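Translate structure to sequence.
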């Protein structure tokens, strides 16, 4: 067929309007389409599009070029222009509109506003909404497309791709959506571009993931050819074309706490969908919050869980979800199979992965609570210190899974962390269990975190203490998993190394009970005949220290004496000095100040022999602590002041906080309340920044005493109540008893004598159990309080309240008196 349009029958049919008139003038001029294009300075495709009616409303400049090339007279020019205008005003092909939403869009106002701004203000011409299956991309795409209808004069067109089974079907699907019935399938993309032309149009592509390459190609071609076109796409994977702007759709907002559960978008979605099933859960928002937290705000998972309320209570649902997500199935019958269960949604994404990506996806499920690139490289390669090649490969494969929405990324403090949503991780873990590499992956994971814990231990006494505390806290779930592996596999060396390396962290961050359990179980694995190793000695030291912090003094002494003998056998002077320091702490809390001072002096001498400035500073601080507890305030001030100055130079945050607490306590016992408050506020701020819970508890305790001395009893109650809660949670019964005695003093000042007697009895009961007396420096206040209480009550009332306090569990004491009628805070009684 010639280029001059010799297919007469077809041309005659298409001859009406501007296209037919242009074709007739071209033939009359004896020109082919190529000839006219050359004379007019236009493309052959443009001439063909105008003649066939694929392109309407040519610009005035184009009409002049055509008229000049065809040498039309004035009347012919007027007719050509009028015909073009009539064609432009004729009905345009009908666009496929976005589907009407089946229900209310909940909790997406921020996302909706952001997407509308990006497209409506033409900040980008291609916006991809991405995220894992079930995150709500399609529903948000529908809402965005509908909201933008006024911003695109030529309309919004919906291109549904979910049902496609062949990537070659993308272009025909676009053509059908814009009302184009192409004549030439080989030029389909060009014909679509010609049909859109200069129109200000929004194309919304939904469910691109399985045909993402072809979608990317046609989007790139259309954006290049159609200057007023914008595109909105929803896809689990990025399109990766020039100009693409990606918006990662987040999970729904979770409730910050149970008291505000009704404000959460995730809770509102659950309530709405459960109510639609005939069950109203508004009276059980705490349990609903528990469910949506477990589901991490994933909309599809929440909807599937809400659907189960027709056969389960919310309590049963929450309990079931703690162990498995298998019940998240049974979605709407009209939904695609991948939207009828969470497993189906994830499996659909998994099936599109390459073999290498599937292998890494499974391996990365060993991480709990996220991971770093270094950790991923270790698990993937098995190298203890992964080199550039291993790290590059880990980064590439991780990046691919991020782009496919199976992994999410967070950035904090200059470090990127990766994690899987819980439902995705469960699927990946199931896949890992079917592979032969499961044991190797878990072992590599554990060894990485053993190495990390040992590295952190070396940094926790220096200038980078805060940074490493935060790093260990962020990896706590992984450390727990590594510890569980070491204990379950009875890997003695690894268990001792990990638990021994973590005891200082457990102390500083208040994980006393958990750290103790790790150490005791690790030590139980070790045969009594095993040779003494540094790891074994360190584990005994850590076990003794954490037992001491929980006031288990006999256990602490046994463990510390064992560690002392082991360090001496190893000829480890630093370890020996550290154990002597801890034994001094036990003696101090038991009221044996002479023994405590002797032990701390021995510790100082050993640290001095090593030239260990940090150890010497700690010895000074401990000697000062002993001095002020026994009432020698001036000696305590000198020693603790010297320690404070040294800790500042060393950058030891814990040591600085402790020396400030001691100096603040000394000032308040001297009656220098302004100075005391300044020192204690500094220690409190430092402890809060470090997450150092014992430091916070002590600072609040001493600040409460300052306010009580000033007569500001309401403020004192608030501070002491906070301190008691912290000490109680930590398991520090020695300090809890002192705080209870201070609260009794406040109660007596406020003429609550019966409650004061109850608190004194509770403190006495605690001291009897742990066998620790009232510290010497606190005895004067204690005796004054007790005398005032006994003078205010008759003997029977005093003994009744006292006995009630002695018999009350410490956990219940702060709930009020009498014990049978608890209240939420001490302020009500004080």
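Result:
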């Amino acid at each position: 067929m010639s280029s001059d349009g010799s297919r007469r029958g077809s041309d005659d049919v298409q001859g009406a309007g501007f296209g037919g008139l242009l074709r007739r003038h071209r033939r009359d001029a004896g020109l082919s389409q190529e000839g006219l294009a050359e004379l007019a300075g236009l493309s052959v495709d443009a001439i063909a599009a105008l003649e066939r009616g694929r392109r309407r409303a040519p610009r005035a400049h184009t009409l002049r070029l055509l008229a000049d090339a065809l040498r039309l007279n004035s009347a012919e020019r007027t007719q050509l222009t009028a015909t073009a205008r009539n064609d432009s005003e004729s009905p345009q092909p009908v666009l496929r509109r976005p589907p009407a939403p089946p229900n209310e869009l909940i909790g997406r106002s921020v996302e909706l506003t952001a997407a509308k701004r990006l497209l409506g203000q033409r900040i980008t011409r291609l916006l991809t909404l991405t995220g894992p299956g079930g995150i709500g991309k399609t529903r948000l795409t529908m809402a965005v497309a509908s909201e933008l209808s006024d911003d695109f004069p030529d309309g919004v067109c919906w291109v549904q791709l979910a049902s496609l089974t062949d990537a070659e079907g993308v272009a025909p699907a676009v053509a059908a959506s814009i009302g184009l019935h192409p004549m030439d399938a080989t030029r389909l993309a060009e014909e679509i571009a010609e049909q859109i032309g200069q129109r200000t149009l929004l194309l919304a592509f939904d469910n691109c993931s399985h045909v993402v390459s072809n979608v990317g190609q046609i989007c790139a071609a259309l954006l290049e050819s159609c200057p007023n076109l914008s595109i909105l796409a929803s896809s689990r994977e990025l399109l990766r074309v020039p100009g693409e702007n990606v918006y990662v759709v987040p999970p729904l907002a979770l409730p910050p706490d149970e008291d505000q559960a009704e404000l959460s978008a995730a809770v509102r979605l659950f309530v709405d969908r459960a109510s639609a099933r005939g069950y109203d859960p508004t009276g059980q928002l705490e349990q609903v919050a528990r469910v949506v937290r477990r589901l991490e705000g994933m909309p599809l998972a929440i909807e599937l869980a809400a659907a189960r309320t027709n056969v389960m209570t919310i309590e049963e649902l929450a309990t079931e979800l703690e162990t498995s997500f298998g019940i998240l199935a049974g979605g709407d019958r009209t939904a695609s199979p991948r939207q009828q269960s969470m497993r189906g949604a994830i499996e659909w994404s998994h099936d599109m992965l390459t073999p290498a990506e599937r292998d890494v996806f499974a391996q990365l499920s060993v991480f709990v609570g996220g991971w770093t690139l270094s950790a991923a490289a270790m698990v993937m390669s098995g190298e203890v210190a992964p080199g550039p090649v291993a790290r590059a490969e880990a980064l590439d494969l991780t990046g691919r899974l991020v782009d496919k929405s199976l992994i999410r990324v967070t950035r904090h403090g200059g470090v990127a962390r990766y994690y899987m949503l819980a439902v995705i991780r469960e699927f990946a873990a199931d896949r890992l269990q079917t592979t032969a590499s499961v044991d190797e992956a878990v072992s590599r994971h554990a060894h990485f975190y053993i190495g990390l814990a040992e590295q952190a231990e070396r940094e926790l006494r220096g200038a980078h203490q805060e940074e490493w505390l935060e790093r260990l806290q962020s990896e706590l779930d992984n450390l727990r998993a590594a510890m569980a592996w070491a204990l379950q596999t009875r890997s003695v060396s690894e268990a001792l190394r990990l638990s021994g390396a973590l005891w200082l962290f457990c102390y500083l961050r208040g994980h006393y009970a958990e750290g103790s359990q790790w150490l005791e179980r690790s030590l139980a694995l070790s045969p009594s005949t095993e040779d003494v190793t540094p790891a074994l000695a360190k584990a005994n030291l850590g076990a003794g220290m954490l037992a001491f912090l929980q006031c288990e003094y006999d256990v602490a002494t046994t463990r510390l004496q064992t560690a002392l003998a082991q360090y001496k056998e190893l000829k480890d002077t630093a370890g020996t000095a550290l154990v002597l320091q801890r034994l001094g702490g036990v003696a101090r809390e038991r009221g044996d100040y002479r023994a405590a001072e002797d032990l701390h002096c021995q510790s100082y001498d050993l640290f001095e022999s090593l030239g260990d400035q940090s150890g010497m500073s700690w010895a000074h601080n401990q000697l000062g602590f002993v001095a002020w507890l026994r009432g020698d305030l001036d000696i305590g001030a000198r020693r603790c002041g010297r320690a404070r100055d040294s800790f500042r130079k060393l950058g030891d945050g814990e040591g600085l906080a402790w020396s400030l607490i001691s100096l603040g306590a000394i000032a308040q016992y001297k009656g220098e309340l302004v100075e005391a408050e300044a020192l204690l506020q500094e220690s409190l701020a430092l402890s809060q920044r470090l997450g150092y819970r014992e430091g916070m508890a002590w600072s609040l305790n001493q600040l409460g005493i300052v306010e009580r001395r000033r007569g500001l009893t309401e403020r004192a109650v608030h501070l002491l109540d906070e301190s008691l809660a912290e000490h109680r949670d930590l398991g520090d019964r020695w300090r809890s008893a002192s705080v209870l005695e201070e609260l009794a003093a406040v109660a007596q000042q406020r003429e609550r004598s019966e409650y004061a007697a109850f608190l004194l009895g509770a403190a006495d009961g605690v001291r009897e159990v742990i066998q620790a007396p009232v510290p010497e420096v606190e005895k004067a206040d204690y005796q004054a309080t007790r005398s005032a209480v006994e003078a205010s009550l008759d003997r029977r009332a005093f003994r009744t309240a006292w006995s009630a306090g002695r018999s009350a569990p410490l956990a219940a004491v702060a709930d009020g008196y009498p014990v049978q009628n608890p209240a939420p805070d001490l302020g009500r009684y004080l």
